[in-house]
Amino acid sequence: MGKHGIEILNLDKDALIQMLNEALAEEWLAYYQYWIGARLMEGPMRSEIEPELLIHADQELGHAVLVVSRIIQLGGTPLLNPSDWTKFARCDYDAPEDPYVEVILTQNLKGERCAIQRYKEIADFTNGKDHTTHQMAVTILNEETEHEQDIEDWLKDLERMKEDMRKFRM
Asked: Nearest-CA neighbor of 123 among 105, 147, 139?
């Protein structure tokens, strides 16, 4: 971003870079959580859900690319060391120690809800003050809400499947 582009920002640039670095840490953790969870997942609907979780992982990686680019445009330095990810992230990384599909989805749902909050805060902070970052945050926010809906739908399907099995056993 050029000097004039930075000069016209009507906000605390350092605070924004901090928020973006926190989001960056969360995107990397979300990417890995989706990717490794999809690989380890066991249980019903696994074959349908796994490829979708891998798409979600790729989208999280895409978010990281957008965030890094914006940090650099703003004259900041993105997090350089993966050991900083858990220090900067507000969203937890939940290791998929129980590979059951419902557990993996619940962990990912928690992460998506945290990401939704993060990007809402960035969008609110930049609204009317930094149009480029605001647009990026809203774009990512839209994808995160789609992810949340996907996961809620799968969890609903799994619950329905369990209910149908209980009825069938009776």
From this structure: 139
Q: Give the Cα separation of 25 and 94 in Å (integer).
A: 14
pLDDT digits (tens, 9 = 90+) for 6-49: 666 889 999 999 999 999 999 999 999 999 999 999 999 999 99
How far is 164 from 134, CA to CA, in rounded Å?
Answer: 45
Contact 13, 83 (CB under 8 A): no
In 3-state terms, what secondary structure has residue 126?
helix
**Tens digit of each residue's pLDDT (9 = 90 or more) over 77-87:** 999 999 999 99
CA 27 – CA 145 distance, rounded (Å)? 14
Residue 48: burial class (beta carbons within 10 Å; 0-12, 13-18, 19+): exposed
Q: Which residues contact residue 68 at a Cβ distance below 8 angstroms, ignoring those fewer than 6 apart?
A: 24, 78
